[in-house]
Amino acid sequence: MRRIVCPVAAIALAAMGFAANSITQEKYTATERRHWAFRPRTQPQPPGFTTPAGKAWTSNPVDAFVLARLQKEELPHAPPASRQTLIRRAYYDLTGLPPTPAEVAAFAADKRPDAYEKLIDRLLASPRYGERWGQHWLDLVRFAETDGFEYDTHRPDAWRYRDYVIASFNADKPFDQFVREQLAGDEMDPANHEYIVASGFNRLAALRKNAGNQEVASSRNEVLTEMTNIVGSALLGVTLGCARCHDHKFDPLRQKDYYRMQAFFAPVHENDFVTATPSEKLAWEAKNKELDTEISHLRQAMKGLKGEERGRMMQRIRDTEVLKPGPLPGLYGVKDDMEKRSPIHVLARGDYQSKGDAVGMRTLGVLLPDGSPELDPATAKPRMELAAWITSPENPLTARVLVNRLWAYHFGRGIVATPNDFGRMGARPSNPELLDWLANRLVEGGWKLKPLHKAIMMSNAYRQASTSPASALGMEKDPGNEYLWKFSRRRLTAEEVRDSMLSASGRLNLKAGGPSIMVPVDEELTKLLYKPAQWQVDQDPNQQHRRSIYLIYKRNLRLPIMEAFDAPDMLISCPRREQSTHAPQALELMNGPFANDTARAFAARLDREAKTPEAQVALAYRLTAGRAPSPRELKLGLEFLKANPMSEFALAILNLNAFLYVD
To answer: Domain ends where: 328, 346, 362?
Structure first.
């Protein structure tokens, strides 16, 4: 594979196989090229400290950079968090699940100096890690298993991409390899099923179908637009999509840049193929034929019926349709078809009917010398070239964008507070030296994430309490906690809320992988679907209690509890979860069928495992808050139990801030 090494000196004319006659004359000013995100990474060294307090607090280089900035802003750091707080924080950050009461007690009692380090190592090795951090990536690339829009057709094999992502995170697959497989897995090895599944990255967007025909010009343009936009937002952290209709108003991204990036995807088309054996295909065809014949007979019999009889016959038809076997197992990916390559033109205002200059493949001009040529149109594997440029160690964007996301998921706010926008209208880095140090460490460490997790979580900056004696000063000078004078408290995400409720009740099913699960929802929601029969609830209650990442991601139907707690709609890239507060959240937790059903199971567990009211209240807090109740909480809990059934007490506990927030 030919690699493009340096984005500034990268595209090297004939020696690299580029067309000499495709040189263009767009110029980029020195000011445009000086924007911090487009400049090469610096090589900062951790600051040194001479005072005993400074030396004591800077346990690793992360602390040195954080403390230097705190001192510059004249802000003190917070004291250490308690061990009960720390283990709960670490569990949720790395696994998305709470620790058990036994795990909390064991960690609190473990006085070995390396106890916390061993905890981090164990959590990073847990299969739950990939489920938690895979969710972040799925948010970012707007993963869903249906097309969206009016039909919202299901994508039966899309779940394999979800499992690919989880497995990649668990294996600590180098991020540069992870990106190459997704952008160009089919070009790397078309016989490798894992790579084909990874290439489904290029098909994750919502898809508008026009009477079933996806190859009309407007639909094709939308497909190419989505493929291009996600590269800008998810991988490069720039608002590339803003240059689709005109030159970017703020950043040095020309409209031609946009369409040159789009040209890398010009030959890409769907690649669905069945992996079933011949005998499986025959059995599937026979069953379908049998049921199609029965449905045909029922439709004939329905002719001439009026009123109730017709309604009963229609119900029989719907019941028979439900019995039809699902699609045969297959792969959902892409492939290049050079004969069907779409000609790429600059489109006036993004209108596919208003074609301007034809353009070929080239990466972002601001990272190239002026006049750099386009890639030779005969290049056989164009997306491999794009992936090589994106993952080049010299690319100033990719590593910075990735470590900033890592930091944001741990601390609630990125070093750059706008993780999908490193442009002029985005936030400037609060600690640019730390950002580059982390990015350099990522690249030097072979693009592996787990060592960076450990470096961040072993820091004293991460181990701070979420309250500080100097809170008044901190809130006055840094209300957003940009400089980390304390640890920022956060609410659980929608998936964490649901999974933690299941965990507290003892119902959580930790089975990993496989086809996605549909759980019961209000019939009024399914009636709103284009085809209500699409929503087929798994009848095994144990399956319904799987982790939320294994529930189907249907764009036109989100579970009420997920929607209430800010789960994204998967229509656009979601770089961070919002934390809104509104009445439907309380209504869902107090009145929702899932909350009440889970509370009854939680109550049964408290009755089963604790024999006295005092023990039941204590167990409830240990299962939900990761700690014992305070004397006041114990008193209130006992008073509540005297006047209310256990199920009401359990429901009340699941509504506490101590359950819903991580300190």
So the answer is: 328
CB 640 within 8 A of CB 650: no
**How far apart (Å, rounded) are the C-alpha atoms in residues 13 and 550?**
48
Burial of 530 (0-12, 13-18, 19+ CB in 10 A): exposed
Provide the residue type at 489 as one letter: R
C-alpha span between 277 and 471 (Å, rounded): 65
List, in sequence order, every residue forming a beta bridge with 661; answer none if it has no partner.
Answer: 491
Q: Can you list the positions of beta strands (E) in 317-471? A: 330-336, 345-347, 355-358
Quote the mean pLDDT of the chain: 92
The DSSP bridge partners found for residue 336 are 268
Whether residue 32 has pLDDT greater than 80 = yes
Query: CA-CA distance, 180 to 387, in Å (whole number)?
Result: 5
How confident is the model over 46-97, as pLDDT tens digits?
A: 999 989 999 999 989 999 999 999 999 999 999 999 999 999 999 999 999 9
Burial bucket for residue 289 (CB in 10 Å: 0-12, 13-18, 19+): exposed
| Two structure tokens written together for 409 | 């998921």
Dist. CA 201–CA 193, nearest whole Å: 14
Reference 101, options 521, 621, 613; nearest CA is: 621
Q: Look up residue 45 and give its two tokens.
A: 């060294």
- The 3-class SS string of 164-229 reads HHHHHHHCCCCHHHHHHHHHHHHHHCCCCHHHHHHHHHHHCCCCCCECCECCCHHHHHHHHHHHHH
Tell me the residue range of the domain where 293 lies.
276-328
Q: Is residue 291 part of a domain?
A: yes
Alpha-helix runs per DSSP H in 426-493: 432-444, 450-457, 471-477
Query: Which of 48, 41, 70 lies closest to 433 in space, CA to CA?
Result: 41
Q: 3-state class of 330 per DSSP?
A: strand
Phi and psi angles of residue 416, each rounded to the nearest 5 degrees, phi first: -100, 115
Compute CA distances 16 → 8, 13, 363, whole Å: 14, 6, 14
pLDDT at position 311 is 84
The residue out of 313, 328, 343 marking a domain boundary is 328
In 3D space, the residue among 197, 186, 183 whose CA is nearest the CA of residue 228 turns out to be 183
The structure's pTM equals 0.91
How many CB atoms neighbour CB 73 within 10 A? 14
The residue count of the chain comes to 663
CB distance 56 to 46 below 8 Å = no
- Dump pLDDT digits (tens) for 600-635: 999 999 999 999 999 999 999 999 999 999 999 999
Residue 156: exposure state from Cβ atoms within 10 A (0-12, 13-18, ≥19):
middle
In a domain, 111, yes or no: no
Angular region, 349: left φ>0, alpha ψ -120 to 50, beta rest: left
Q: Which residue has the tokens 């929702």?
A: 592
| Cα distances (Å, whole numbers) of residue 382 to 137, 209, 264, 431 | 24, 27, 6, 36
DSSP 41: P
The answer to whether residue 580 scores a pLDDT higher than 60 is yes
Residue 2 lies in a domain: no
Residue 238 belongs to a domain: no
The set of long-range contacts for 587-593, using a CB threshold of 8 Å and a minimum separation of 24, is: 588/560, 588/561, 588/564, 589/561, 589/651, 589/654, 589/655, 590/651, 590/655, 592/560, 592/561, 593/520, 593/522
The amino acid that residue 10 corresponds to is A
Number of structural domains in the chain? 2
